[in-house]
Design a protein that fits this description.
Chain B: InterPro entries: Alpha-ketoacid_DH_E1_comp, DH_E1, PdhA/BkdA, THDP-binding. Chain B: Keywords: Oxidoreductase, Pyruvate, Thiamine pyrophosphate. Chain B: Its cofactor is thiamine diphosphate. Chain B: Residues 43-331 form the Dehydrogenase E1 component domain. The complex is a heterodimer of chains A (351) and B (376). Chain A is α/β, with parallel strands linked by helices and 351 residues long. Chain A is built from 13 helices and 14 strands. Chain B folds into two domains: 16-330, 3-Layer(aba) Sandwich (Rossmann fold); 339-375. In chain B, the strands form two sheets. A six-stranded parallel β-sheet of chain B has the order 1-7-8-4-3-2, sandwiched between helices. In chain B, strands 5-6 form a two-stranded antiparallel sheet. In chain B, helix 8 (236-251) links the parallel strand 7 and strand 8. The longest helix of chain B has 26 residues, at 36-61. Classes of the chains: A alpha/beta (351), B alpha/beta (376). At the A-B interface, helix 4, helix 5 and helix 6 of A face helix 5, helix 6 and helix 12 of B. Bound molecules: thiamine diphosphate (TPP). Thiamine diphosphate binds next to strand 3 and strand 5 of chain B.
C-alpha cells in the first residue's frame, strides 16, 4: 500500500511550524479559512442564513461581511432548497460559492440540489460545466440543542457519487481542509463538528496552506489496535486510546477526515500492524460509515484480521433530546468496550 | 355577525398581451422588431422545431430514442425566447423546449444524442454557457437565480455589461417551492432574471385548475415583488415582445420579471404517456384551432409574405437539414464505457481506480471476445 502524505503534513503543521500564532478554536479556524479564501480569490462568495451582521449562529462567519462587504458575504432569505440550488447556478458561472446551512438538520430540503444537480453537473455536461461548491454545515450532537439540531447523517451523503464529504476534527485540520475544499474543483460537503467548535485551541497560522483531501490522518500511532473516528468522536476516541495505553495497550487512532472518497490505504496499512479494528461514530449504525469501512476492510484485508471489525456507534433511533443525548452518543466507556471486544476476540470463541 | 369595515391596502392587475388573434389577424400594430425577415425566420424555426419533435417521436416509436417530450403546440414560446436572448445570456431550460434549443445554437444531433442516452448531448458545443436540461421539476429556477447572481456579481466587479439568466418551466412547476424560493430571492436581490412559464394547461394528467387555485400563474410573482405579464403563448409576437422587454429591463438593472405564456400541449406529455386517458378529443380539437404555426402562417399569407411555393421550398430545405442531422447523430462514435468515471470528479479519486480498471477490463474482454467471434 502506498504511503500517504496527509498525516505527515497535518502533524508537521500541528507540531512545529505553528507555534508562533495565537491558539484558535475549530470555529475560529473555519472563520480564518473563509477570510483567507475571500481575501485571495475574488470568485469566492459566502452566503447563508444570518451569516452577515450576526456572523452565523455559531459565529463561523463573524466579521466577514464587515471585511468583505455585502456582495461577497450575503445573508439569504430563509430557504434551504434555495441556498443549495443557487450555489449550483453560481458555480456553473465560475464563482466559488461557500454556502452555509445553519444546522445539518436543515440540509434535507437542499438534498435535491446536492444530489440531483451539484454532483452531476460535470458528468451530465461531459465536463463542460462543473460545480466547485462548498456546502458547510455544523453537525453532530452534544450541545443540548433542540430537535433537528444534532443530526449526524453523513452516510446519506457519502452514498452520493461525485460528492466529497469532509469532516475536520481539529482547528488546524479545519483550516487546511476547508481551504482545500474551497479550492477543490468539485462539490464538497464540509461538516463541522459543532460539539468541538470551541473544545480546544491550537495555533493555526494563516498561511493559506491547504491539507490534502482524500487522505486519512494518523493521530496516534500504536500496534495493538486501530481505532477509527472522525469529527467530535475523535475526542473520546483519543481519550479511550490514552486509557488503553495506561493499561499497556497501544491503539493507533485514524481520522479519515474525508469520508468520501475514503482513504482505505491508511486504514489497511494500520491493520497490517494491529490486525484489530474498531470504528467509532455517533451516527446511527445501520448503513452507516462504519458498515462501509468494515466492508472494505474485509474485502481488502480479510486475512489480516484477528477479530471482526467492531462498530461503536449511535443507536438506530432518532437522536434523542438532550436529556438522553449522552446515552446515545458513544462515550469513552463504550469505545473501551468495543476495543476490548476486538482485543479479546479469539477464533472459535475460546478466550 | 357584524362585518368590520375594511380598507384597501394594495391592489394588483395582471395585464394580457396579444398581437395576433386566434385567426391570425393583427389586433394592434406589430412591434418594430417584427420585420418580414424576422417573421419568416421565426416561422422557419417553429417549423423546424415541429419537424425535429415529430422525427424524435418516430425514432422513439422504433426504439431508437428513449422517452421524449415533444413541444408540439408551444413552439412559439421556445423560438421567441431563444431568439430574444444574446449569446452571453444564460438559458436554464426545462425539458420541453426544442424551439429554444435550436435558436440557442444547440444542434439537432445533440438533442437526439441526449434523448438517445448519450450524455454528450448536453455538452452543447454552440451554446457553451447554457445549463443542461433539468428533469426534476422547477429546480432550474434556482440554478437560474444563482446564475443571475453570478452575472450581476461579475458586472459589478468587472464593469462588464449586465447579462441575464432566463429560466423556463411548465405551469405545473409553479407549484413547487423551488419556484417561489427563486422568485423570492430574485425579487429581494433584484437579480437579472426572467422566468418564462409555458402554461400548456396540463402537468401530465393534472389540468391547470387542479394544479392551483390561483386565477393566473402570472399573479404568483406579485407576492415576490416581481412584475408579471400574461401573454398569448401561441402568438410569437406577444411572447417575443414580453421576453425582449423583460430582458431589456433586467439588463438595465431593473431586476426580474415573470412571463406566463398561455399555450396548449397538443401532444402526449411524453412518448411514455397517453393523453387520451385524461383529456377529451374535443378539447384537443379546439386547441388545434389556435396553434402557433397556423396562426403565423395565416398572418404571413395575409401580408403576402408567404405562399405555397415558399412553403414547398421550406419543406424541402428542412427535410435536408433533418437528414443531415440524423446522419450526424447516427455516425457518432459511441463514448467509451469508462466515460462514466471520466467526468465524475475533475480528477478520479484513487479509491475509484479499482472500479475504473474493472470496467475497462470488462470492456477489453468483451472486445476481444467480439473479435474472436468474428474470426470464427
Ligand atoms: C420533482 C419532480 N416530480 C415529478 C416529476 C415527474 N414529472 C415530469 S413532468 C411532470 C409534469 C410537469 O408539468 P409542467 O410543469 O406543467 O410542464 P409540462 O410537462 O406540462 O410542460 C411531472 C409530474 C419530475 N420530473 N420532477
Amino acid at each position: 500500500m502506498e504511503n500517504r502524505t496527509g498525516n505527515e503534513m497535518g502533524e508537521r503543521q500541528e507540531a512545529t511550524e505553528l507555534r508562533d500564532s495565537a491558539p484558535i478554536t475549530l470555529v475560529g479556524a473555519v472563520n480564518q479559512a473563509l477570510a483567507h479564501a475571500l481575501a485571495n480569490d475574488p470568485q469566492v462568495v459566502v452566503f447563508g442564513q444570518d451569516i452577515g451582521a450576526n456572523g452565523g449562529v455559531f459565529r463561523a462567519t463573524d466579521g466577514l461581511q464587515k471585511q468583505f462587504g455585502t456582495q461577497r458575504v450575503l445573508d439569504t432569505p430563509l430557504a434551504e432548497t434555495m441556498i443549495a440550488g443557487i450555489a449550483v447556478g453560481m458555480a456553473t458561472q465560475g464563482l466559488r460559492p461557500v454556502a452555509e446551512f445553519q444546522f445539518m438538520g436543515f440540509i434535507y430540503p437542499g438534498l435535491d440540489h446536492i444530489l440531483s444537480h451539484a454532483t452531476r453537473m460535470r458528468n451530465r455536461t461531459r465536463g463542460r460545466l462543473s460545480c466547485p461548491i462548498v456546502y458547510r454545515a455544523p453537525y453532530g450532537g452534544g450541545i443540548h440543542a433542540p430537535e433537528h439540531h444534532s443530526e449526524s447523517t453523513e452516510a446519506l451523503f457519502t452514498h452520493i457519487p461525485g460528492l466529497r464529504v469532509v469532516v475536520p476534527s481539529s482547528p488546524a485540520r479545519a483550516y487546511g481542509l476547508l481551504l482545500a475544499a474551497i479550492r477543490d474543483p468539485d462539490p464538497v460537503l464540509f461538516l463541522e463538528p459543532k460539539r468541538i467548535y470551541r473544545a480546544a485551541r491550537q495555533p493555526v497560522p494563516d498561511n493559506g496552506e491547504a491539507l490534502p483531501l482524500d487522505s486519512a490522518f494518523v493521530l496516534r500511532e500504536g500496534s495493538d489496535l486501530t481505532l477509527i473516528a472522525w469529527g467530535a468522536s475523535v475526542k473520546e476516541t483519543l481519550a479511550a486510546a490514552a486509557q488503553l495505553s495506561a493499561e499497556g495497550i497501544e491503539a493507533e487512532v485514524i481520522d479519515p477526515a474525508t469520508l468520501k472518497p475514503l482513504d482505505i490505504h491508511t486504514i489497511i496499512d494500520s491493520l497490517e500492524k494491529t490486525r484489530r479494528c474498531v470504528v467509532v461514530h455517533e451516527a446511527a449504525r445501520f448503513g452507516g460509515m462504519g458498515a462501509e469501512i468494515a466492508a472494505q476492510i474485509q474485502e481488502y484485508a480479510f486475512d489480516l484480521l484477528d477479530a471482526p471489525v467492531q462498530r461503536v456507534t449511535g443507536y438506530d433511533t432518532v437522536m434523542p433530546y438532550y436529556q438522553l443525548e449522552n446515552v446515545y452518543l458513544p462515550g469513552v466507556e463504550r469505545i473501551l468496550d468495543g476495543a476490548r471486544a476486538a482485543l479479546d476476540y479469539r477464533r472459535g470463541g475460546a478466550a | 355577525m357584524h362585518k368590520p369595515r375594511l380598507q384597501l391596502q394594495a391592489s394588483f392587475d395582471i395585464a394580457w398581451l396579444q398581437y395576433l388573434d386566434k385567426q391570425g389577424r393583427a389586433t394592434q400594430p406589430l412591434p418594430e422588431f417584427a420585420s418580414p425577415d424576422w417573421l419568416t425566420h421565426c416561422y422557419r424555426q417553429m417549423q423546424l422545431a415541429r419537424l425535429v419533435d415529430d422525427r424524435a417521436v418516430k425514432l422513439q416509436r422504433t426504439g431508437r430514442l428513449g422517452t421524449y417530450p415533444s413541444s408540439l403546440g408551444q413552439e412559439a414560446i421556445g423560438v421567441a425566447t431563444g431568439n430574444a436572448l444574446m449569446a452571453e445570456d444564460v438559458y436554464c431550460p426545462y425539458y420541453r423546449e426544442t424551439g429554444a434549443f435550436l435558436e440557442r445554437g444547440v444542434r439537432i444531433e445533440e438533442i437526439l444524442a441526449n434523448w438517445s442516452g448519450d450524455e454528450r448531448g448536453q455538452n452543447y458545443q454552440h451554446a457553451p454557457r447554457d445549463l443542461p436540461i433539468c428533469i426534476p421539476i422547477a429546480t432550474q429556477m434556482l440554478h437560474a437565480a444563482g446564475v443571475a447572481f453570478a452575472l450581476k456579481y461579475r458586472h459589478q466587479q468587472q464593469g462588464s455589461p449586465l447579462q441575464v439568466a432566463i429560466a423556463s418551466a411548465g405551469e405545473g412547476a409553479t407549484s413547487k417551492g423551488d419556484f417561489y424560493e427563486a422568485m423570492n430571492l430574485a425579487g429581494v436581490w433584484k437579480l437579472p432574471l426572467v422566468f418564462v412559464v409555458n402554461n400548456n394547461q396540463w402537468a401530465i394528467s393534472v389540468p391547470r385548475v387542479a394544479q392551483t387555485g390561483s386565477q393566473t400563474i402570472a399573479q404568483k410573482a406579485i407576492a415576490a415583488g416581481i412584475p408579471a405579464l400574461q401573454v398569448d403563448g401561441n402568438d410569437i409576437l406577444a411572447v417575443a415582445w414580453a421576453v425582449r422587454d423583460a430582458l431589456q429591463r433586467a439588463r438595465s438593472g431593473e431586476g426580474p420579471a415573470l412571463i406566463e405564456a398561455i399555450s396548449y400541449r397538443l401532444c402526449d406529455h411524453t412518448t411514455a404517456d397517453d393523453a387520451s386517458r385524461y383529456r377529451s378529443a374535443e378539447e384537443l380539437e379546439q386547441a388545434w384551432q389556435w396553434e402557433p404555426l397556423k396562426r403565423l402562417d395565416t398572418y404571413l399569407r395575409s401580408e403576402n409574405l408567404w405562399s405555397d411555393g415558399k412553403q414547398q421550398d421550406l419543406d424541402r430545405e428542412l427535410a435536408q437539414v433533418m437528414e443531415t442531422a440524423l446522419n450526424d447523430w447516427e455516425s457518432r462514435t459511441p463514448e467509451p464505457a469508462t466515460a462514466i468515471f471520466d467526468h465524475l470528479y475533475a480528477q478520479l479519486p484513487e479509491s475509484l481506480y479499482e472500479q475504473y480498471d474493472q470496467l475497462r477490463d470488462e470492456q477489453l474482454r468483451e472486445k476481444l471476445w467480439e473479435k474472436e467471434g468474428a474470426v470464427q
